[in-house]
Amino acid sequence: MSRRRHSDENDGGQPHKRRRTSEPIEIEDRLESLICRVGEKSTSSLESNLEGLAGVLEADLPNYKNKILRILCTVARLLPEKLTVYSTLVGLLNARNYNFGGEFVESMIRQLKETLKLNLYNEALYLVRFLSDLVNCHVIAAPSMVAMFENFVSVVQEEDGPQVRCDWYVYAVLSSLPWVGKELYEKKDVEMERILNQIESYLKRRQKIHVPMLQVWTAEKPHPQEEYLDCLFAQVQKMKKDRWQERHILRPYIAFDSVLCEALQHNLPPFTPPPHSEDAVYPMPKVVFRMFDYTDAPEGPVMPGSHSVERFVIEENLHYIIKSHWRERKTCAAQLLSYPGKNKIPLNYHIVEVIFGELFQLPQPPHIDVMYTTLLIELCKLQPGSLPQVLAQATEMMYTRLDTMNTTCIDRFLNWFSHHLSNFQFRWSWDDWSDCLTQDLDKPKPKFVREVLEKSMRLSYHQRIVDIVPANFSALIPTNPIFIYKYMDESSSSLPGYPVTIAISNAIINRSSNDEILTILKDVPNPNQEDDDDEGDSFNPLKIDVFLQTLLHMAAKSFSHSFSALAKFHEVLKILTDSDEGKLHILRVVYEAWRNHPQMISVLIDKMIRTQIVDCAAVANWIFSPDMAHDFTRFYVWEILHSTVRKMNKHVQKIQKELETAKEKLEKQHSRRKDSGDEEEDKNSDEEDGPLEEQIERLQEKVESAQSEQKNLFLVIFQRFIMMLTEHLVRCETGGVDFNTPWYKNCIERLQQIFLMHHQTIQQYMVTLENLLFTAELDHHILTVYRQFCALQM
Amino acid sequence: MSILNALRSDSYVDISQYRDQHFKGNRYEQEKLLKLSCSLYVGNLSFYTTEEQVYELFSKSGDVKRIVMGLDKVKKTACGFCFVEYYTRADSEHAMRFVNGTRLDDRIIRTDWDAGFKEGRQYGRGKSGGQVRDEYRQDYDPARGGYGKIIKK
């Protein structure tokens, strides 16, 4: 008997058959479906599908012209990987119906203006590229496209406006050339030459301060990590030298050349780039991620070179596929693996490179990290005979290059690797990595292996890790995550406070009240106290120690037990940690007791912040305190700090949202009254608005207070970084020692990481940061990081 | 525009056919809650899988608010399922997309939307105290107490 219930009848589910009716809605849906899915899953060729569809749409134009226009504009904007399919379709329609072609071009221009206004720069890019491909389809006259490109490039002459604005317009021109370079050069070579020269001189003079901050590897070998505009320009130059030959892009319109060249072309209306405005948010610059070249794929098709335009096109298309299908990993993997033209390229290598490129992208990956892990697993399932090997090869390569890998990327690498291994019984050729055993533990390779094993343990258990690595790896195995109870037994009886721990344990077992517990704690001597006129309410580190050690020991069994304990004695803990010193000390006690179990420390701190036993600034201060210096480069510490900053940010956002909602409500109330034309408006308005206005005022205060706390948190973090780094640099200078130690590299990159991970929030506080902290007197090594960060939006 | 729907297929986030028989309310109410829920049921765990392991894995899709380990009603020991609750719907959707169907403790786990934890739901509903599926299954699964109860009898 099945325990599953079937869904109810007539619950609005899908009908089995789509009846051919003349219902407009159904026809519109059908049009959408036809257009979106053209060429998919068909036994006929793409060309005959396009021909057929063009015929259908032509027939529907009299009644559904606007709908068809809208659909085509939308796919142009959102399906860049099918660009040439749809441009061909538009070409065919234009050949059959000149007016429609003109209206389509007009709609596209309108859309382009809209997307630029709304800061949708990626979509705007696809629109520009689509327009340029329409030149190939004889819909748009080449000279008018060149004119648009001339207007784009003239942006670099503007007086005001950030560099990233000029960058986008230059990129829009360059990235269209793989599709239309040949055609434009054939028709207007003088103008195009001028455009390229202008671009070249712009690229020579533009600032590239941001590049080191965005590079995954700082080394030039084996593959230079190039700035994205430089790389693309080199690719275009090479293509030009090759007489604009481009062999990779699928161009269905070639098959229709005889039809299309009969069509009349349209001129693009003159397009002036909208002026720069304060709320414009241009895309950030990028560095091109490269980890493979033709020497890495041993057999089969050759990988296109790093400056070949094919490389650019392949990478763009693979990125688009991920962008379209990231939510559905099976579909995404299947789409990636069925990339058209896959027989001419080492597709697995391209896929792995593009995926890691996204995962390691700075500041942030385009999608959540775990998506890439799952996608790679899915790909391994679909290509079990080849993809795992490429992945292993990639892992090995990244391991050998750890010395020059950005710390943030190492974090993501080890997170990915440990999670990946946990899906494959942790099978790995650890012996291949035994070279790390002879190095100091603070060097990148042994450090990496240690952190991987620690993360792997979190997904399994200690003995498992002992079992999976060779015996000689024992120094890198994480500690057994057991609680360290200071007041364990008789041997600790000499410790001050020991007798009270017994009393506390009994009190907890006997379910004593909070007051009773506080009374017991009064007996704990205060090592800080000089005189005894105090009632015992001031900060007493030993009290915190005695109570918390005992409590956590009793609750050590699991996370749930510990959380229950914190909740149950929340009041006591709040009282004990009333001061800043108290908050700092509770963190110390947690650390001392659980230092074998970083994961537990992390979740306890999370709970304590959320229940306001400690605040975010206390956590930041604790991490930077001398107590934590020896663990300062460990991954878990930074997990905690970033999690803390994120909680702070989310808290501010939440209250801001509440304020906005309340304001909107008030707005609605006002307009409702206006609409109803209430004569007694004044009398009612006070009554109605009063409580809401009060709420808004309260929320306003809450927002200001939260923002103040947030600003303070960043100030604390940056201040501490500056202090630590300055100290180190000064010490090295006076001692005549090289400052660039593994510790230093870690520390300076962690500072970078704070900027990169929270760049949107930090932008709000730039003025304060510049005036208070990142002043000209600072050591230039530290100031450089700040300047690189500023360069990201300049 | 429904083009966006066609282009943004997100089937991993859909609710399944399962409906909790003990849910207090009608089908419609349950489905409404499922579509807004931030809570997930997680099944096919090993009896030895710990709360810590669940935390680590599910934290990859967002901040975990709470985990409730499923218990045998009689023995009060882990019986192979749990509930994971997130602070936001978005984070739980990521779990449905990227954690569901992957391995935890070497086993492929399955996640599904849950209408929300209520006291009592942490217990197995099988006659012997564990989960129903362990009452009737015929295979040998060392991580789930060996043979199903029906074989043991």
UniProtKB/TrEMBL annotation, chain A:
Name used for this protein in its record: Nuclear cap-binding protein subunit 1-like
Keyword Nucleus: yes
UniProtKB keywords: mRNA capping, mRNA processing, mRNA splicing, Nucleus
Family designation: Belongs to the NCBP1 family.
Chain intervals for the UniProt region annotation (Disordered): 1-24, 664-693
Domain of life, source organism: Eukaryota
Coiled-coil region list: none
Localization, UniProt: Nucleus
InterPro entries: ARM-type_fold, CBP80, MIF4G-like_typ-1, MIF4G-like_typ-2, MIF4G-like_typ-3
Organism: Huso huso (Beluga)
Domain MIF4G stretches: 28-240
Keyword Membrane tagged: no
Biased segments, Acidic residues type: 677-693
UniProtKB/TrEMBL annotation, chain B:
Gene3D superfamilies listed in its UniProt record: 3.30.70.330
Pfam families on file: RRM_1
Assigned GO CC terms: nuclear cap binding complex; nucleus
UniProt entry keywords in alphabetical sequence: mRNA processing, mRNA splicing, mRNA transport, Nonsense-mediated mRNA decay, Nucleus, RNA-binding, RNA-mediated gene silencing, Translation regulation, Transport
Localisation: Nucleus
Record region (Disordered): 122-153
Biased composition (Basic and acidic residues): 132-142
Keyword field contains Repeat: no
Ranges of residues in domain RRM: 38-116
Highest taxon of the lineage: Eukaryota
GO molecular function, one term: RNA cap binding
Annotated GO biological process: mRNA cis splicing, via spliceosome; mRNA transport; nuclear-transcribed mRNA catabolic process, nonsense-mediated decay; regulation of translation; regulatory ncRNA-mediated gene silencing
Subunit structure: Component of the nuclear cap-binding complex (CBC), a heterodimer composed of ncbp1/cbp80 and ncbp2/cbp20 that interacts with m7GpppG-capped RNA.
Family of the protein in this entry: Belongs to the RRM NCBP2 family.
Record function comment: Component of the cap-binding complex (CBC), which binds co-transcriptionally to the 5' cap of pre-mRNAs and is involved in various processes such as pre-mRNA splicing, translation regulation, nonsense-mediated mRNA decay, RNA-mediated gene silencing (RNAi) by microRNAs (miRNAs) and mRNA export. The CBC complex is involved in mRNA export from the nucleus, leading to the recruitment of the mRNA export machinery to the 5' end of mRNA and to mRNA export in a 5' to 3' direction through the nuclear pore.
Protein name per the record: Nuclear cap-binding protein subunit 2
Lineage, top ranks: Eukaryota, Metazoa, Chordata, Craniata, Vertebrata
